[in-house]
Design a protein that fits this description.
Blueprint lengths: L1 H7 L5 H13 L6 E2 L3 H5 L3 H13 L3 E5 L3 E5 L1 H14 L5 E8 L3 E7 L3 E7 L6 H7 L11 H19 L8 E5 L2 E5 L4 E2 L10 H18 L1 E2 L8 E4 L2 E4 L6 E2 L5 H19 L1 H4 L4 H10 L10
Antiparallel strand pairs: 1-3, 2-3, 4-5, 5-6, 6-8, 7-8, 9-11, 10-13, 11-12
Length: 301
């Protein structure tokens, strides 16, 4: 667990991080790194490597396997430790807080600096590596792909999207990133799926979401995974989050993915609030967003 990793950080020494970084470097070439190669990768002596291996394995940061050779690989806790160390060294974060959300492909925690922020760890590729590896486009051109690479690329893709879209689009402000971790603005609000909108709020909230989707498209991105689980509703409006699957609008399937996003979010409103939005046409809304002409639902009933 990440909370355990955060507690262990104070007891780790610089050489421990040299070792973990050395294992990370070696895992670019094989799943398990030969123990004999670790002095080269970590720039530590063989004696120091032996000592650090025991320390890091005892803390759950490394996994050992004996085959034709004795090999070691990072656990996700070890990868978390490297990312946390880098973010602390930069002064981005100063304290670690409570979980904000734990999901299949990411864990989000509150962290502290000059203000409360959110720290998101991408988990893509760890528990369902083969499935994610097949689905995610950014792993398609590599022969050897580790789960760290898959998670790091997901974080890079999301951070790039947030940097491009903020502040024109209501997305969390990106603060910093390292490896598979992103530090971003902490958003106050309630997930749309857990929100009961008043009658007079239904169409305005849907319009806000569609407007932000249109602004994102104009800025160069399609979310490509829109649902009621990726929108926060707050007192000051809505925020769209979770952008690791975002695609640029020059992608061959961008328009198709936008249409699917519209269908997903509009379908949710039509299931939950049929009296208010059952007359809205998916195709006409999608066409308006693609043309940059969406203004209100009343124009596209």
């Amino acid at each position: 667990m990440v909370q355990t990793v955060a507690r262990e950080m104070a007891d780790l020494e610089p050489e421990d991080f040299h070792l973990l970084s050395g294992v990370e470097q070696g895992m670019r070439f094989s799943e398990y790194v030969d123990r004999e190669k670790l002095p080269q990768f970590s720039r530590l002596t063989a004696e120091d490597v032996d000592y650090r291996l025991d320390r890091c394995e005892d803390r759950g940061f490394l996994e050992r396997k004996t085959m034709q050779y004795e090999g070691f690989k990072l656990t996700f806790e070890g990868y978390d430790a490297l990312a946390l160390h880098a973010l602390v060294e930069r002064g981005t974060i100063e304290g670690f807080g409570a979980p904000l959300g734990v999901g299949k492909e990411s864990d989000v925690f509150e962290v502290r600096s000059y203000k409360p922020m959110a720290l998101k760890f991408h988990r893509e590729g760890y528990t369902q590596f083969r499935e994610v590896n097949k689905e995610r486009e950014y792993t398609a051109d590599r022969d050897h792909v580790s789960w760290q690479y898959t998670a790091r690329k997901a974080a890079e893709r999301e951070y790039d999207a947030l940097e491009t879209l903020y502040p024109e689009v209501r997305v969390p402000q990106p603060i910093d990133t390292n490896r598979h971790a992103i530090v971003m603005e902490k958003i106050d609000g309630v997930e749309l799926s857990r929100t009961k909108l008043d009658d007079q709020q239904v169409r305005p909230v849907l319009e806000l979401i569609l407007t932000e989707m249109g602004t994102a498209y104009d800025a160069g991105y399609v979310h490509a995974d829109m649902s009621e689980y990726n929108v926060f509703v707050g007192s000051d409006g809505i925020t769209i989050f979770d952008w690791p699957q975002a695609v640029p609008t020059d992608h061959a399937n961008a328009d198709e993915l936008l249409a699917r996003d519209v269908e997903n979010i509009l379908g949710y409103f039509q299931r939950k609030y049929p009296r208010f939005v059952d007359d809205v046409e998916i195709d006409t809304v999608t066409e308006a967003l693609l043309a940059g002409e969406f203004e209100s639902l009343s124009n596209h009933d």
